[in-house]
Please model this.
Amino acid sequence: MIQISEAEAVVMEVLWGRAPRTADEVVAALAGRDWAEPTIKTLLNRLLTKGAISAERDGRRYLYQPLLQRQAWVEAQSEDFLGRVFDGRVAPLVAHFSQRGQLSAQDIAELKQLIQELGDE
Model:
């Protein structure tokens, strides 16, 4: 799995949202952040070097699009976090958030539904 930093993940979210995009479009999409244009272009180049995105020439500019799929990245990040923090187990993760009062009624209902569906299999 391609390892990307938190800052690179922000750029990837822009490309996962809509692609292809030019560097200027990525910069515009990240205008709310306190990042300079050269920083964003550096992040694009890092992602390109890592093989997370591709760049296709379009006249005098490049069109960037993701090669790394968001779902694959989320799965890898989730498994890594779960393994490092909760010894690979989901129940302690849920218990952690429950004990801190961070599960909404909707979260609890969704978890109950998932458990019921797993029991039906």
User: Anything to note?
Assistant: The mean pLDDT is 94. The longest helix spans residues 70-86.
